[in-house]
Design goal:
Residues 663-672, 684-711 have a biased composition (Basic and acidic residues). The chain is an alpha/beta fold. 18% of the residues lie in helices and 28% in strands. It has three domains: 33-316, Metallo-dependent phosphatases (Purple Acid Phosphatase, chain A, domain 2), CATH 3.60.21; 326-542, Alpha-Beta Complex (5'-nucleotidase,  domain 2); 553-663, Immunoglobulin-like, CATH 2.60.40. α3 runs antiparallel to α9 (308-324), α7 (216-222) crosses α8 (224-232) and α10 packs across α14.
């Protein structure tokens, strides 16, 4: 029979710390008494999909006679659909039925606000020694709880990270403060010491944790709040359990002022591990660690070890989720899907409309929170678990859906993992590295993982590049080259923020949680933006398809006349292409006149090359003087690129903008009539030689660069007056292209 006492420790601003030389007397269990502590953390409502049953089976199989079952917090919040669809009530009922004795409050317990968690009627205590009413020392939660287990007097103290105030909505916690957990723990420990019935064993449940835990030194070095608790918590605490950082940890640390150690443990997350710590009493108030294990619970459920009441709670929750999941969330106008291979299997190495849409939602979702707005959003293909199709229905099809209707349940099936949403602040150079990490390590199961990116981003990569340093050709944010030294705010998920899927560049930045899950963002996005349509324009282009880069085509600017200022763009191509944009920036004192081409509305001197045929394609233009003071050597700039507004999808023929400066000498006066530009035979080829082999025209010494520092080919300026132009000190733009393969290797 377990006897329980609730205790509200009044926590003062000053810590009460025992002198290390005079340790207090504690309750004393008989020598040789063994006591077991089972512990979980960051369960996050994972009662469905077999996880809840497996954890229940593991608890049943491993629970000893003298035992307590505890949690370090975040039992609810950021939950999967079987729990979140019902305000997490099934999870709290599940933990009650499983015999949870006490839990620290975690930051996610405050997702719906302080009043909500305080109103939850559970058999187990929510403990928060460092959560006080604003402006006072008055505790808002019990600081500790005490109870008797077969004659062993147990005390459990709970605290939560002070970061909670930045992780949840301020409106939900406006009446409370989060104070130093060490001060709160030590105050509670002293109050327990002074009580009439001193506990035999005191356990700390702390919802704060390290970011790495290879050793106790590594763990304490990774997080100051965690380190303070480990190193400064009262010596009366016999075992310490942590949470929040979602990692597994099974260590020991020295007890201050003694030669003894105590267990320092964190049981992973999502119910994937059950901590089993066993202590033996020395008969003088001290406990010796007998064993400490993190049990992998996967597959532990059997027909006999899952209690009937626990199984019923799980089954009822999943059935109810099917019902509430049929509520309309929004609409789509056509299918929005993942990428697929020719055999119909999922292709995580290719771009998808669904991945890009989720990235858009993650970026917009920052505005649903208190965080500063993000610059762009990024998601991983592995987080997308199903497609959104016009004819889909949720569950067993018992409830009729209209075509194109999307339900809450269908949204959850796309993003079922309930990852925390937030923003990583990272440098531009790390963003570039992130896109290079789409190429996975050699031991990975997939060689390439294509990130979904929001509409603010435009990326060009080269699938044919052997050198990893040359795989990312260009990253643009809102049309501008990314600044390697500038910091950018990237909306993403906790999985990626922690370096998941080998995207380690994310871990170089700082992750701020929005307090929302991916599903909550996803749900609200559809609420605000329905009907939702797929964006069929690619956001990551492959340079291996670039017709100038892979040798499928050449492009040159020619002039057949030294005085008439007639020019033409000549494209020699082995393949057909379409929707290229050619721009001429006229020098001062000149206007551009186009033959057979019209300037695109809203642009200045840009025309569309609708069709590039296999063979030769020409675009003719002329520079007309509008001033008398324009004689002598001149130059102008031209660019050629695929129209970014066209709906390319893994077939962009010119994703990198090519730029070149063209020099000329003019004696034409305003109003002179000029002959039509007529292509001549005196052009210059890509190698700078006249086509008759005489090598009369050589490149000048001006080493210009293309606008995006790409490795693409320039647009050579050629003509009969080239030598004179060079002599005048005006040269072509030098780019220094390198040829790439004609076709991209198929990713699998």
């Amino acid at each position: 029979m377990k006897r329980t006492t609730r205790a509200f420790a009044a926590v003062s601003a000053l810590a009460v710390v025992s002198p290390l030389g005079t340790l207090p007397a504690f309750g004393t269990a008989d020598k040789g008494t063994e006591f077991q502590i089972l512990n979980i953390t960051d369960f996050h409502g994972r009662i469905g999909s077999g996880i809840g049953a497996d954890l229940a089976g593991a608890v049943t199989d491993n629970r000893q006679e003298n035992s307590t079952f505890l949690s370090a917090g975040d039992n609810i919040g950021a939950s999967t659909y079987a729990s979140s669809s019902q305000q997490d009530n099934p999870t709290l009922e599940y933990l009650d039925a499983l015999g949870l004795d006490a839990s620290a409050v975690g930051n996610h317990e405050f997702d719906r606000g302080f009043d909500d968690i305080k109103s939850r009627n559970t058999k187990f205590e929510h403990l928060g020694a460092n959560v006080v009413k604003k402006g006072t020392d008055e505790p808002a939660f019990p600081a500790y709880t005490t109870y008797d287990v077969n004659g062993v007097k147990v005390a459990v103290i709970g605290v939560v990270t002070t970061d909670t105030k930045t992780l949840v909505s301020p409106s939900g916690i406006k009446g409370i403060d989060f104070i130093d957990p060490v001060k709160a723990v030590n105050k509670a420990a002293k109050e327990l010491e002074a009580s009439d019935e001193k506990p035999d064993i005191t356990i700390l449940e702390a919802h704060t944790g390290p970011s790495s835990a290879g050793s106790i030194e590594e763990a304490t070095g990774s997080n100051d709040e965690f380190a303070s608790l480990v190193e400064k918590a009262d010596p009366s605490i016999d075992a310490m359990f942590f949470g929040h950082s979602h990692i597994k940890m099974n260590l020991t640390a020295k007890i201050p002022g003694t030669d003894r150690t105590r267990p320092v443990v964190q049981a992973g997350n999502y119910g994937n591990a059950l901590a089993d710590v066993r202590l033996t009493s020395e008969g003088n108030g001290d406990w010796t660690l007998k064993s400490s294990e993190l049990i992998d619970v996967k597959g532990k459920a059997t027909e006999s070890n899952v209690p009937a009441d626990v199984k019923k709670i799980i089954d009822d929750a999943e059935a109810k989720a099917q019902e509430v999941g049929s509520v309309k969330a929004g609409e789509i106008t056509e299918d929005i899907t993942r990428a697929f291979k020719e055999d119909g299997s999922e292709d995580r190495g290719a771009e998808s409309t669904l991945g890009n849409l989720v990235a858009d939602a993650l970026k917009e979702g920052v505005t649903y929170s208190n965080l500063e707005e993000a610059d762009f959003g990024i998601t991983n293909p592995g987080g997308l678990r199903t497609d959104m199709k016009m004819d889909d229905y949720f569950g067993e099809g018992k409830l009729k859906e209209d075509k194109g209707v999307v339900t809450d349940g269908e949204l959850n099936q796309v993003l079922p993992f309930a990852n925390d949403h937030g923003v990583v602040t990272m440098k531009g150079e790390d963003v570039i590295e992130l896109f290079a990490q789409q190429w996975q390590p050699a031991e990975a199961s997939r060689p390439f993982l294509h990130l979904g990116i929001s509409k603010e981003l435009s990326v060009v990569y080269d699938s044919s590049a052997k050198d990893p340093a040359k795989r990312v050709k260009s990253v643009k944010v809102n049309g501008e080259d990314i600044d390697p030294a500038k910091e950018y705010r990237v909306a993403t998920l906790s999985f990626l923020a922690n370096g998941g899927d080998n995207f380690g560049a994310f871990a170089k930045g700082k992750f701020e949680q929005s307090g929302l899950t991916d599903f909550e963002i996803w749900q609200k996005y559809f609420e605000k933006n329905s009907p939702v349509s797929p964006d069929k324009k690619e956001r990551q282009a492959d340079f291996a398809h670039d017709i100038l880069g892979n040798g499928s085509a050449t492009a040159e600017v020619h002039t057949p006349d030294t005085t008439k200022n007639n020019f033409y763009l000549k494209i020699d191509s082995k393949v057909e292409a379409e929707n290229l944009l050619f721009t001429v920036e006229a020098p001062k004192g000149y206007d551009v006149e186009w033959e057979d081409s019209k300037v695109i509305e809203g642009t200045k001197n840009t025309v569309r090359v609708d069709k590039v045929k296999a063979g030769e394609t020409q675009v003719k233009f002329r520079l007309v003087r509008n001033s008398d003071k324009t004689d002598g050597a001149k130059e102008f700039n031209t660019t050629l690129v695929a129209d970014p507004a066209a709906k390319w999808w893994d077939n962009n023929p010119l994703p990198i903008l090519r730029e070149t400066k063209v020099g000329f000498v003019s004696e034409e006066k305003p109003g002179d009539d000029s002959d039509e530009a007529t292509p001549g035979d005196g052009g210059q080829d890509d190698k700078g030689k006249d086509k008759d082999g005489s090598d009369k025209g050589k490149e000048g010494s001006d080493k210009g660069k293309d606008t995006d520092a790409s490795d693409g080919k320039p647009l050579p300026r050629t003509g009969t007056e080239t030598a004179g132009m060079i002599a005048a000190g005006i040269a072509l733009l030098a780019v220094g292209a390198t040829a790439v393969g004609l076709t991209r290797a198929r990713r699998k």
